[in-house]
Design brief:
Shape: elongated
Strand content: 25-35%
CATH architecture of the largest domain: 2-Layer Sandwich
Number of domains: 2
Mean pLDDT: 94
CATH superfamily of the largest domain: Bira Bifunctional Protein, Domain 2
Distance between the termini: 42 Å
CATH topology of the largest domain: BirA Bifunctional Protein, domain 2
């Protein structure tokens, strides 16, 4: 019998009918033991919701399954059946559980709420938390929606430089890019930096905006947009300032202020509707 291809837990939970044999893989959120079987909550990052796995004591490695702790990675093959419990449509009755990797009791993401400060201390594991996994699933969907919105309206996607010699009309403070040794800066006779010895032979920076390039392309392609990383070096240590972020900048030829406002309003409405449709669990 051929091994079934792994099914994302999101697809398993949205199944329209029972499945005799399917395979899911993921990380154990919790395990609860009963007399003859164990309940395992499994998540693979494809959805906010967990899939309940029923591990019976007839499994050949059931004693090892009972020792699994939160964070363990497992691969489960079994039958997807209607759930007997409340709050879930389907559950997986395991015929086989392969233990891919174990986790001990020191695993920090236990079944409880965690503050942003605590998650910052475990950056390598925080994508597994509900908060971060939800944020990045929504971000992934909305990034796709940005492109879909503009592509459906005839805009051309333009990749603008990340390293530039322009400050884009003074849009923000700049991060300098250089190959010069900071401890041995070469200088000319008048004391100014000798950029001839730098990689680009001139002052260069991380971009604060792709606007200048997009304006030039709009005067050739009519409708363009940029969507990429942007850097601002304002020394403002607040929650409202990010030194690196992604920015969306459409540019249109033959367009007035009213057309600009109409596009912006349509764009915001489109993204909100798209997020509500495709990420309902994460948006709640």
């Amino acid at each position: 019998m051929t091994q079934p291809s792994p099914t994302p837990i999101k697809d398993a939970l949205q199944s329209r009918a029972p499945i005799d044999s399917t395979q899911v893989q993921g990380w154990m959120r919790t395990r609860r033991d009963s007399k003859d079987f164990s309940f395992i909550e499994l998540n693979d990052g494809s959805t906010l919701r967990n899939l309940q796995v029923i591990a019976k004591n007839t499994l050949p490695n059931y004693p090892a399954v009972q020792r699994l702790a939160t964070g363990a990675a497992i691969s489960v093959t079994g039958a997807l059946v209607p759930s007997q419990g409340k709050g879930q449509k389907w559950e997986l009755v395991a015929d086989k559980i392969d233990i891919v990797g174990t986790a001990d009791d020191s695993y920090p993401l236990q079944k409880k709420g965690h503050t942003a400060e605590f998650l910052r201390e475990i950056a390598h594991l925080r994508p597994r938390s509900n908060l971060f996994s939800s944020v990045f699933r929504v971000r992934s969907r909305l990034a796709f929606a940005v492109h879909q919105f503009f592509q459906d309206r005839g805009f051309v996607y333009v990749h603008t430089p990340i390293i530039t010699g322009s400050d884009c009309e003074g849009a923000g403070e700049l991060f300098r890019v250089t190959t010069l040794d900071a401890e041995k800066i070469p200088r000319m006779g008048d004391g100014k930096i000798d950029y001839a010895k730098d990689f680009f032979a001139r002052p260069t920076y991380l971009t604060v905006s792709g606007q200048l390039e997009a304006e030039a392309f709009a005067l050739a392609l009519s409708r363009v947009y940029t969507f990429g990383p942007t850097f601002r070096a304002e020394n403002s240590n607040t929650s409202r300032h990010a030194s690196e972020f992604w920015m969306i900048e459409p540019e249109m030829a033959f367009c007035d202020l009213n057309g600009n406002m109409d596009l912006a309003e349509e764009f915001v409405k489109y993204l909100v509707a798209y997020g509500r449709e495709h990420c309902p669990d994460e948006m709640e």
